[in-house]
């Protein structure tokens, strides 16, 4: 193509091919027994109200989470990035020793796709499949990855995989490598995490060759709690934005000013818990229902389980994976695991 030299910037402005994108979110999926509204209503009407952390991630929620990852107190993202930066050659060698060469890289909860974008040059996958519940946020992120890697086959998938992962046939079934960074597995209760891992480890189900997993490790309570209650209040905003998302999804009338962010480490359960606490007695209404909250009453919005290298290795083995390798940072705050399917 002959472009006038007067406009050198035009070369960059030319659109590249946009990635394939399949939106399965809100379509009834196998294993899904209820609608989003039913699921929300059920949690809100329980004696101890709950809202699933997957509802954090509307468009604003994904942006707030991205802001969290840049906070001084939130060590997981930069610690994980440092582990990867120091270990790419070893990780790539471990995969190729398992006979995996041009994998299909399936990125679970891909968000802004930044972690995969850093991994792709090292793994040289033949296909990249970012999956996320935050559909429009993912659409933009996948397009950016396509800009960086114009020749890469990308299939973006908008879906909620929290109650089961069923991939459409556009996803290559050979050489599948699942990438689940950021300690997002920690949002599952251990029994659910086991079931999820079993699904991936079962060659007949996930068709996987292995799993590259990022997990936050148990450490002192003060550091854990600071990571979930930062001085700027970004995590508080992230938590309260859940109520705005619920207002949209359920036509509810939550007023975020009536709620306080609470984050605490429950050592007995080895998990960070996030809650929203009513500042005064109040009633929340949505079509057909209402829920009264007393002053100080809480809605449980998130569990973020923390593992040790030993407890995660045991869980991976229990799920049916074969060899397990791991890499950690000098302070052992975070670990990256490679669990092979054998
Ligand atoms: C995306 C689930 C890994 O648990 O650390 C960050 C979400 N919540 N701050 C985490 C989160 C509050 C995050 N995960």
Summarize the structure in words.
The chain is α/β, with parallel strands linked by helices and 342 residues long. It has ten helices and 13 strands. It has helices at 10-13, 36-45, 59-68, 75-97, 114-123, 135-148, 190-201, 221-227, 234-250, 309-318, and strands at 20-23, 104-108, 127-132, 153-158, 176-180, 208-216, 259-266, 271-278, 282-286, 289-293, 298-305, 324-328, 334-340. It has an eight-stranded mixed sheet with strand order 1-4-3-2-5-6-13-12, with helices on both faces. Strands 7-8-11 form a three-stranded antiparallel sheet. Helix 3 runs antiparallel to helix 9 (234-250) and helix 4 (75-97) runs parallel beside helix 5 (114-123). It starts with 9 loop residues before the first helix and ends with a strand. N,N,N-trimethyl-histidine (AVJ) binds next to strand 11. N,N,N-trimethyl-histidine binds at residues 68, 76, 182-184, 186-187, 228, 235, 302, 304.
CA radius of gyration = 21 Å
Number of helices: 10
Give a short account of the largest sheet.
Answer: 8 strands, mixed
State the share of residues found in helices, binned by percent.
25-40%
Total number of beta strands: 13
Q: Which residues sit in consecutive blocks of at least 5 with pLDDT less than 50?
A: none
- Which outline best applies? globular
pLDDT average, as an integer? 94
Please provide the ordered H/E string of secondary-structure elements. Answer: HEHHHEHEHEEHEHHEEEEEHEE
Strand order of the largest sheet: 1-4-3-2-5-6-13-12
Beta content: 15-25%
Distinct compounds present: N,N,N-trimethyl-histidine
End-to-end CA span: 49 Å
| Secondary-structure content class | alpha/beta
